[in-house]
Design a protein that fits this description.
2 domains; single chain; three-stranded antiparallel sheet; mainly beta
Amino acid sequence: MNDKNTLTRRSFLKSSGALGVVAGAATLLAACTTEQPDNEAIYTITVKSGATLTESNSTTGRYKYKKKCSSCGYESIFATTVNGKSVLDEFKCPRCGFLQKIEIVVST
């Protein structure tokens, strides 16, 4: 290997952004990749009625919601945490007495 070939390889490494070491006749390349696993599920959280989302994580499926009355607009001060499950529940509004259905759908 001559010096001209070595300089060409060095300039190629710098221009391509690769990490490399030129050592005699061999060039070692280290590629940096950030691949995400293909089998990782993405969760979609949809509130149909009776709640508002306060936090959600689409990779773990964990979310928090507060109960909300559609009749008078009352919203609970406490949040409920759920891990990747759909919710079908109901509550009686403390302000107006309306029986509110809670429906939250989680899908992957």
